[in-house]
Amino acid sequence: MMSSEIANVVFLAAVFVGVIYASRILETRWPIADVPYSEFRDDWLAVIMSVGLANLLAPIAAMIAGKIANFTGIGWVRLPTEGYWWYASLGFVLVAMDLYKYTFHRLQHAIPFLWSMHSFHHSANAVTFITGARHFWLERVLADALLPIMAILLRVPPDMAIAAAFVFFLPDTCAHLNVRIPLGRFVTWINNPQWHRIHHSALMEHRDKNFAAFFPLWDILFGTAYVPKPDEYPATGLVPAERVDIINSVIWPIRHLRHRASKNELG
Ligand SMILES: [Zn+2]
Ligand SMILES: [Zn+2]
Questions:
Q1: DSSP 80
Q2: CA pair distance 26, 39, nearest whole angstrom
Q3: What pTM did the predictor assign?
Q4: How does pLDDT run along the chain (267 residues), one tens digit per residue?
């Protein structure tokens, strides 16, 4: 490994630790809900299993993605980047990415096969910053293997891709912060912990609401918005509540499909 690569790894690790640490300070200072240590530990276990398994399988995902890219080609549509066009194109990329995320997220709730994996994310009984990284490992592998449709459709220059990822970080990743941020009427402007908490709610009236990753406008336009009252911070998790351990973080969908079958029998 070259020394510049080592420096990069050290830098990224430092940023990672810094972000986690900052999130803990905020979550301790202005929490929405008290999180028992056991929930916090479960969340970390789920994230480590999921990221670890997905990384092991990354070469297979990359191989499949390569084959798809060879077949379809990538970057069908070239965006203008001269002068101020760069910003207009960035805006277009953000809106397109967000609409894609919104659509895919709704499918994850509507199609049983996808829900059997996505429910792993919703099984977090306490939503904290770490929950943002809690996704079933196969979901990650499939997303990488099936080469994001955006890369096939749009030719996004590398600097714009980095800028888009950076802009997305705030509303998307930070939506899971266990931090009370009173936004008042701006709660419908940009995704935030209260908006997304409704999506994770255990209450019936919040089910399949607030899918947006960046712009709650999609929820408003497509009829899936639930605008929370100023003090509305519901309990979160699946009903009935479920917990992860090492085994079921690997075989989650099988376990969950069985649950669903027994639930259906009961009506
Ligand atoms: Zn969801
Ligand atoms: Zn979430």
A1: P
A2: 18
A3: 0.89
A4: 567 888 888 998 898 899 899 999 999 999 999 989 999 899 999 999 999 999 999 999 999 989 998 988 888 988 988 999 999 999 999 999 999 999 999 999 999 999 999 999 999 999 999 999 999 999 999 988 887 888 888 888 889 989 998 888 888 778 999 999 988 889 999 999 999 999 999 999 999 999 999 999 999 999 999 999 999 999 999 988 888 888 889 999 987 666 555 544 443
| Helix, strand or coil, per DSSP, at residue 122 | helix
Q: What is the distance in A from the centroid of ligand 2 to the CA of 118?
A: 10
Q: Where are the domains of the chain?
A: 31-266
Over the range 115-136, which residues count as b (16 or more CB within 10 Å of their CB) and which as e?
Answer: bbbbbbbbbbbbbbbbbbbbbb
Q: Which ligand is nearest to the CA of 209?
A: 1
For ligand 2, the distance from its centroid to the CA atom of residue 48, given in whole angstroms, is 17
Report d(CA 13, CA 238) in Å as an integer.
33
Q: How far is the CA of 81 from the centre of ligand 2 (A)?
A: 33
The first and second tokens of residue 259, run together, are 């649950």
Instruction: Give the number of whichever ligand sits closest to the CA of residue 207.
Output: 1
